[in-house]
Amino acid sequence: MSKWHPLTAYDYFKIGHDTAAIAQIMKITEAEALEQLSRERSAQLGRPDPYEPPQVRKPSYLVGYSGR
């Protein structure tokens, strides 16, 4: 016999609901829905919550103009 698991905020997001709809479905505030979604997404990606975006380095040829 399998145990039924309720859908999470991330599950609702993956099937196309936005945070306002998720909040209404789960009977929580939109801020709480966003927090849950962010936490669950970070867990799925194996990243800490909140996580820092990757650092993008500028190519060396894009140095600032120093004038002539």
Low-confidence stretches: none
Major sheet size, sense and barrel closure: none
Question: Based on DSSP secondary structure assignment, what is the total number of beta strands?
Answer: 0
Q: How would you state the average pLDDT, rounded?
A: 85
Please give the alpha-carbon distance between the first and last residues: 77 Å
- What is the C-alpha radius of gyration, as a whole number of Å? 20 Å
Beta content comes to under 5%
The percent of residues in helical segments reads: 40-55%
Report the structural category: mainly alpha
One letter per element, helices H and strands E, the order comes to HHH
What is the general shape? elongated
Tally of alpha and pi helices:
3
Q: How would you briefly describe this protein structure?
A:
This protein is an all-alpha fold. The chain is built from 3 helices and no strands. It has helices spanning 9-14, 19-26, 30-45.
